[in-house]
Write a structure and sequence with these properties.
The chain is mainly alpha-helical. The chain is built from nine helices and four strands, in the order αααβααααββααβ. The strands form two sheets. The protein has a two-stranded antiparallel sheet. β2 and β3 form a beta hairpin.
């Protein structure tokens, strides 16, 4: 009954997710407003995420520039001097790995990742936020499991003591895997929390 009584507070914005959540957690949702996560905590998390985004953007720029520089140097050395950096090609492949996963993390933040969105074309527009909520939650959970698997994989490589080149352990290059999956998971779950912290129309 409470859901129906306060339906008018949310229905004007088409936010059926608000109605459903209010029905599940009425004590946390006064009329016209629902907050399931403290605003101060959200601001702190957003601040940390913004700092992380700047660091990742800088890292991608530096690594991409380094990758281009080494690749260009390899071409010059091979064609003009018949020489090459022995570990250059291997290092470039590792840089591609890092740039790719850091880019995936940034894409998840900006919601520019690849997605299949055929359902919104067949369902009412008012279901959009609910669908996005479910998608973000599911993607966050799956990415979390992938982060755990990647972490165990890196642990396995650490135990193996394998090296790639210049006596640098393999796991140092692979540490980007658990990091990226963890950050991607956190960002999807943060978007899920964002859906739980909203204001209705007054």
């Amino acid at each position: 009954m409470k859901v129906l009584l306060y339906r008018s507070n949310f229905a004007s914005s088409g936010d059926f997710l608000s109605i459903i959540l209010y029905g599940l957690f009425p004590a946390h949702s006064p009329p016209g407003r629902a907050e399931f996560f403290p605003n101060s905590s959200m601001r702190l998390i957003r601040k940390i995420e913004n700092i992380l985004e700047k660091m990742e953007t800088l890292a991608v720029s530096v690594l991409l520039s380094l990758m281009i520089l080494i690749a260009f140097s390899q071409v010059i050395l091979r064609n003009l001097f018949n020489e090459a950096i022995l570990w250059g090609d291997i290092f470039i492949r590792q840089l591609v790995l890092w740039v790719g996963f850091l880019g995936a993390s940034l894409a998840a933040r900006e919601s520019k990742h690849i997605s299949v969105d055929f359902l919104p074309h067949f369902l009412p527009k008012t279901w959009g936020k609910l669908i996005q909520f479910i998608v973000n939650l599911t993607a966050g959970i799956i990415s979390g499991f992938l982060a755990l698997a990647a972490f165990r994989f890196v642990q396995f490589e650490m135990d193996g003591s394998a090296v790639l080149f210049l006596d640098i352990p393999v796991w140092i290059f692979q540490i980007i895997l658990p990091y990226s999956f963890f950050v991607i998971s956190a960002r999807f779950l943060l978007k899920t929390l964002g859906a739980l912290t909203f204001k209705g129309n007054s």
